[in-house]
Amino acid sequence: MQKAAIVILNYNGVETLSKFLPSVIKYSTFPVYVADNASSDNSIDLLKENFPQVRLISLKQNFGFAGGYNEAFRSIQGKYKFYILLNSDVEVTDRWDINLIKYLEAHPYVAGVQPKILSFGQRDHFEHSGAGGGFIDSLGYPYCRGRFFETIEKDRGQYDDEVTVDWVSGACMAIQSEIFHESGGFDASYFSHMEEIDWCWRMRCEGYLFKYYGQVGIYHVGGATLAHSNPKKTYLNFRNNLTTLKKNLPNRDWIKVYCSRIVLDTLAAFVFMMKGNLDHAKMVFRAHHDFNRIKNQSSVATNRECQRNGEIQFLLWEYYIKGRKTFLQA
Prior knowledge:
GO molecular function, one term: glycosyltransferase activity
Distance between the termini: 48 Å
Shape: globular
Protein name: Mycofactocin system glycosyltransferase
Domain Glycosyltransferase 2-like: 6-123
InterPro entries: Glyco_trans_2-like, Nucleotide-diphossugar_trans
Strand content: 15-25%
Organism: Cecembia lonarensis (strain CCUG 58316 / KCTC 22772 / LW9)
Number of helices: 10
Radius of gyration: 19 Å
Oligomer: single chain
C-alpha cells in the first residue's frame, strides 16, 4: 500500500483547473488525481493535453461533492493509507502535503487534519471554509476560529497552533483512508455542503479526533463550484444542517433544538427578505419542507451523545447580542 494520494473533485472547472493545478503539481509530493463529475466542458481534454502527470478518474454522472468523493475513493480503495481532499480552487505551498501526512502518521488516533485556510483574494485574511479550525455550537451553527458568520479575521499568527476541532474542512483535509471506508464515507444524500461536518461528527462519536494544524497554510478562493450568492447554496446549507442535527443528536436533544431552529431559521428568512434576497428566503423554507419530507432517507445515523470541542454554546447570542466577533474576543 502506498502512502497517500491527493484527490481533487472537478465539475465543469476547466478555468479553475488551468489556474490552480500548476501549484498543486509544483509543490506536491504525492500523486495527484482529478475525479471528474461528468463535466460537459473541456476539463478532460485539458487534463489529457496539459497535465498528463495527473491521474484521471472519470465518473459517469455528477454525484456532487459527497457522492463524487465516495465514488473516487472507492476506485482507489486499498492503494493508499491516506487521502488528501483538495478543492480545485486552492493554491498550495511548499511541502504542504508531506507535512499533513506526517502529522497523521505521528497521531494514529486522529482521523483527519486540516491546514490553516487563508483567502486567495485577500491573502492576509482567513477564508470562510474552515479558516483556523471548525466547531459547532449547541444549535448546530458551524463556526471557525478566524470566521464568525461573515466576519473574517486578519491572519496575525493567532492561530498558528494545533488544536482539536469538531470538524475539518472539505476544502483541504488529510484523512485516514481505512477509517473513511469503514465509516461508509460521506452521506451522498447531502450532494454538497456540510457532508464533512456530518462525517466528522459521526467519527467523533466513534472515538476519533480531528485536528487543525496551523503550521501548514493554503490559499482558497471559495465558491468556485457554487457561488455564495447562489440561492442553491443557502438551500443546501440549511437542509443539510438540519439533516446533520437529526442524524447525530440524541432524540431527547433533537426535539428541543429543532423547535429553536424553526424560530431562528424563520427569522433568518425574514432577514433575507428585508435585504431584498427573496430567493434566499424561499430557499430557507424549501429546505425545511424538503428536510421533513425526506429526513429518514439519510444513510447513516448516530443519535448518540458526542462531546463538542468548541467553547461557544450559542453563537447567535454571542455574535448579535454580546457583540463577540472573533474567537479570541472575551
